[in-house]
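Rotation project, supervised by the postdoc (A.L.). Task for the rotation student: set up a whole-complex structure prediction and record inputs and outputs verbatim in this book. Inputs entered:
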Amino acid sequence: MRNLNLSQCIAEAINLEMERDDRVLVIGEDVGVQGGVFGATRGLQKAYGSLRVLDTPISETAIAGMGVGLAMEGYRPILEIMFVDFMGVCLDQIYNAIAKNHYMSGGAVRMPIVIKTAGGCIGSGAQHSQCLWGTFAHLPGLKVVAPSNPYDAKGLMASAIESDDPVVFIEHKKLLLTRAEDFSFGADVPAERYTIPLGKAAVVRAGTDLTLATISGTVLPAIAAAERLDAEGVSVEVIDLRSVVPLDVDTVAESVNRTGRLLVVDEDYLSFGLSAELVTRVIESKARVNHFLRHAVPDVPIPGALSLENAIVPSEESIFTAAKELSRRV
Amino acid sequence: MRNLNLSQCIAEAINLEMERDDRVLVIGEDVGVQGGVFGATRGLQKAYGSLRVLDTPISETAIAGMGVGLAMEGYRPILEIMFVDFMGVCLDQIYNAIAKNHYMSGGAVRMPIVIKTAGGCIGSGAQHSQCLWGTFAHLPGLKVVAPSNPYDAKGLMASAIESDDPVVFIEHKKLLLTRAEDFSFGADVPAERYTIPLGKAAVVRAGTDLTLATISGTVLPAIAAAERLDAEGVSVEVIDLRSVVPLDVDTVAESVNRTGRLLVVDEDYLSFGLSAELVTRVIESKARVNHFLRHAVPDVPIPGALSLENAIVPSEESIFTAAKELSRRV
Amino acid sequence: MTSLLDRYGYMLWMREFELACLEGVPTREIHGELHTGIGQEAIAAGFVGSLRADDALCSTHRNHLHAIAKGVDMRAMLAEIFERETGLCGGYGGHMHLMDPKLKFSATGIVGAGVPVALGHAYAARLKNSDSVAVAVIGDGAVNTGAFHEAMNLAGVLQLPLIVVVENNEWAISVPFGASSPTATVAERASAWAASGVKVDGNDVEKVAAAFDEAVAKARSGGGPSLIEASCYRFRGHFEGDADTYRSQQEKDERRQIDPLTITRARILERALATEEQLVGMETSVRSALREMLAHVRAEPHPLGEHATRHVFVEAGR
Amino acid sequence: MTSLLDRYGYMLWMREFELACLEGVPTREIHGELHTGIGQEAIAAGFVGSLRADDALCSTHRNHLHAIAKGVDMRAMLAEIFERETGLCGGYGGHMHLMDPKLKFSATGIVGAGVPVALGHAYAARLKNSDSVAVAVIGDGAVNTGAFHEAMNLAGVLQLPLIVVVENNEWAISVPFGASSPTATVAERASAWAASGVKVDGNDVEKVAAAFDEAVAKARSGGGPSLIEASCYRFRGHFEGDADTYRSQQEKDERRQIDPLTITRARILERALATEEQLVGMETSVRSALREMLAHVRAEPHPLGEHATRHVFVEAGR
Ligand SMILES: Cc1ncc(C[n+]2csc(CCOP(=O)(O)OP(=O)(O)O)c2C)c(N)n1
Ligand SMILES: Cc1ncc(C[n+]2csc(CCOP(=O)(O)OP(=O)(O)O)c2C)c(N)n1
Ligand SMILES: [Mg+2]
Ligand SMILES: [Mg+2]
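Outputs recorded:
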């Protein structure tokens, strides 16, 4: 096993795409010389030069808008917005241009753009800890991907770059900083190129009593919680959604049909986001949902102190408690 | 009856608040000399001068950020972002500062700000037709209000200004342009000041067979569709949610408990928005939801041609069809 | 070299095109806020001849004239504006979103948002090691957007072939230039972004053309970005339906006297580049060509509602 | 008038405060990216004496020194940074979000975002017809944000009492100033926003103080906005934990030799404003005061998890 961490896998995926396709570019703050604040673009500027891997000023609107123009010129830009929290300064280009140009042009224009960014909680407070996949998912025209492990990160990034649609690719900061050997799954990453299709969830743990669907940084603690629930006689199936758009309702519905119980765990804000959409779509799919529960950040900004953060962000412990409660509902 | 249109009612509400409270300001593009592109701030600059009613350059980030500073100084600014579609250029100040400063300061700072904007479809294409209340609602710390008629517009605006919390106030463009006499309800607007509490839905039509919950521009067509469904033997209760945050789940749940059927109609995008959240919360409330249906813009940007727009935006006709279908489910 | 007569021809097409558009508003064939460039033709007509197909042009809500200057098919434009299936974007875009990727023409309804897009085109020229350039046309109001600053800044840093033309018609809806600009001109701000700055009389098509051509030549030869401010006046309301009470009747009456078409026409006669009869002939033929185009467009079908969910994604979505 | 000795005292507090913060990182008492201003003390210390309680100061991710200069309670700051319930924001904010509304001090973690907020404070002064001013401190990297431009522009249009101080430490994380600025200095761009522009040696606390005081006086008397560029160097990585390999060891070694505290100290001795013993005494007492403060803060409780859902709304929400 190569024991790469997640950020290395991302860099490797981008490297392989840049190697096979000259049109792939990386544009953003600190992506070049530094190789990304999380190392997820390491080595790329050395390999491909400072034109294809461009360090920009702190000008996210310029970065995003450049991506639009470059896509129109036939390029496939990867735009790095360092933290997803900063999206508010450039969302206009993302949702009014990148997401809509294909539609507004009646299909004539394509926007094969990856918006690469980091999300998730690591004790950084309200402006550096958000997930916001729900925000992007609400806006038509964007695919929204968030990997949970090194193997998926590499394969999903390859697919995101290869996709002719714009993809918001949210890397979890905690996972970026986790060493591969600390992943209970997906730590073994082949050196060669491979892709994982966008929109296919993964059943990362089989179970019979309860379906736990989640994504990104909460997949690992969900699995850990599930292991502990075995001891309590509750068999939890854990599904890693992998992407919010497309949302793989089929895989979840199929599971819920067997278990009858659905727990959605979401590190993003609870309301008007992933959890309600998934619950609703699973019910709409006519799956047999006897009980469901949502466990997410309870519509609170992420607090500064870790003692406060820990109280509102789903953790192994809180997932365990939520799953147990759901398993007992009658 | 005074026969004021909705934009006049808004201007009247702001006028009354500015009269009783010196701290209320209006800041935005074309709000002063022109009185707003929809006339919703008409007369205010004449009455209160060009300092309290400030015409700004096209600089939404400056507008929103100014609001933050002014709120810290004890003012109660009404910030006009002309169309809700333009939020992408200044969302940072809205969700990272306005929405979070109260929280991040541990309650020490208050942000009594109204973000006043226009949403909804009137044949203006993908960048001038959005509703986006789902976007704001997902972000904690913002109240989100969208009136459906002149009476509510006035009373809700008064409450929004009076509120110590930030309120995103979304006026529907079509309603702004509709004359009061063309409203089937809420057209009679008293001249004096009154408030309507934020977060209280209104049952605008009583019914027994089906609960139709909606907001803003689709309330009127929902009522019209309900009238027609009477003839088909389906008695539809129509609820105007009035605000997305707070979301008055109790009123909807109480109704659904009687009707057993819930139709959510939403002019915003279908997924990851109001419709799933409401459905989920109503089910969570333990109301007896035998059947539900969501009818919203099917995750498509708003097209340019009206013939396309009409096909994807809920209308009296499409609401009628959806309600009828839902009423027949067994 | 594009002759003055050629430019006048373009201006005629532009004016007649806009007049044709006006017809669709009262008839409710065109929805939303239609913005026309009537009175501002000399600026776009000044672009003609300097740009190649591989140069990019990113425009605004007031985009028709720029599209014509870039060579976009007018009939497809008119059909798009009249919301027909045969439109440039199949009816999906509408009048604020004319897009022709083959000619690298695009427009946006968000003020200022075209400048970063043009920056991307300019960067593509650098990547391709080509001498193509990118033009962003904006209004005076757009100079105050963050997007403008960020894009100008990066163009300055990288010395990219970006030309930003500011159509300074003195108004951004109801806000006069002086109420939104701390400087007397836009051009004088250019050095803040290491760009050349020049202000020209935007009613003088030759002056515009000279300044534009110079900026294009400079950009092509690696000389970096330029900011061209062209003064002009918006003859009509901000959009069709705008009561336009914020501008005094006197101002409007006076300023509309200064019509770039009249000016150009007089100059042509003065220089004997054409006779009165020739000009009348040109005018009549453009007018009737546009009448015909409009009639054809009006006979074309509207896009089918059932197609409205197409083109959200290239691949499977949701 | 604030004496040089007073300023040195402030600089000592600032340095020791930052050193105290550093201790919380390896112990995991402080989470997230801690940014310190070590090496940049002369700038904030130059503010002292010019600002009143009713003047506003809007700061950045690197905000501790500015808060100290504004007079924010250091113990409450330290407690906030160490994530205690007794912190300035009760632990809800964290080190990037120190806020003290009584002193009109606030900070943001979003680069550039403090300038429009300061603009609002400056506009409040206009509304109140008061002579208070608003200061935004930003880094060199923030000059390229749209927020900066929009706020500067409006301040220029309205000639508001806004002072923007740019701490030009030559780096925005790994991006050197030259790779993000098209001009050699920030100050020379000021005229684009009708602001005065001046560049000062940010290691010289007296030069900073003079320039700052002049800008404040100008703003107080209705003279409009100023842009002050103060050169400096960030002694540590961008945040604690930054490998900081983008700056050469040689550069770092050389530049850290130019320490504003050393410079100021030498000047004090040179001018015989204090004796070596007096200075050592000051240094020792500040150091021990901060040790004591830190010890106290460390004994204070963390906020209770069950309180995490407070303060989302003033009134009932959801
Ligand atoms: C970001 C943004 N803010 C506001 C608007 C609304 N709006 C459309 S055009 C316009 C005025 C533009 O003025 P200017 O740039 O001078 O162009 P002109 O209309 O005069 O050609 C405004 C405020 C918008 N489309 N986008
Ligand atoms: C809008 C935005 N983009 C990016 C970041 C990430 N970021 C934080 S600090 C920083 C560099 C800031 O450089 P500068 O303004 O020079 O301040 P310095 O850190 O040097 O004091 C960056 C890019 C951010 N916080 N906000
Ligand atoms: Mg204009
Ligand atoms: Mg810096």
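Student's summary: The CA atoms of residues 201 and 241 of chain A lie 4 Å apart.
Supervisor addendum: Chain A has a mean pLDDT of 97.
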